[in-house]
Amino acid sequence: MRILILGAGAVGLSVAAKLSTVSQVHAVCRKTTADAITKEGFRMTGIWGEKTYRFSIGENIPDQTRFDYIFITSKSQDTESICRQFAGVIKDCETISLQNGIGNEEIISKYTSRVIGGMIITGFEWRGDAAVHVSVEAGPLKLGRFPSGLDDPVRTIVSVIRSAGMNVAESPGIRSELWGKTLYNCALNPLGAIMGVPYGKLAAPTAWRIIESIVREAFPVIAAEGVPLPWKTPEEYLTYLHDIQLPATAGHHSSMLQDLTRGRITEIDFLNGAIVEKGRGHGIPTPVNACIADLIRFRESGGSA
Questions:
Q1: CA-to-CA distance for 116 and 149, rounded, in angstroms?
Q2: Does residue 147 have a cis bond before it (omega within 30 degrees)?
Q3: What is the domain count for the chain?
């Protein structure tokens, strides 16, 4: 099977490495990263095992190569430009979004009718241009036909991922899974970045009160979007977050913190920013999420106007 990874950062390269043991994989990423991996191999450490992998990688794709599946693993703010750049390859190909936030699948659907949604709650942290540490995992990677359903192409790629040694499951309601992960990210990701701490530190009462407000604002927005969640109330989700998700990912450092440290734009507009935007459309106030989003944007800009 031929698999293409577009926008390969820490997540995409780690998935590419595992899949390269059972498939023909090509990853598209930044030149500095591609050059380092070509020279040194890709070094993975952590809970997915410790090993150096070698697979096809570069800034572009080999000429006239067709793929069975495409994974888009870029930051959400890059989804549109990646789809536009590789439109000819994406067209009519099974394309999987393995990204944070809300709206990626809708963007991809403008370029192909064969969209598979993906939800992953695993911590990936850079350890250099050619190395990633997989720090934590809160559950299986989940895949489903977007916006809902299962079919043979989904089941096939789930089987391939499982054969590569990754924890994966099918989901007939992937849109709900994506919103569930967005709740988790909205609650922890920006606060971890603003405060400069791993997720476990956010259980402190002063931080937890902010998390409670973020989640309570988000719930009516998600309900207005018509998305069912496995938790009936904000309090039910907050209990799950506090008792299950937070301990499982306590040692992880926020991806936004990593982005800000590297001087890059974050995905805030697809997380808390998306809650604010959709809340505005439904007439639902979201002042705490708006404040969090602006704090991250301030950090992105270096405090400039």
A1: 10
A2: yes
A3: 2
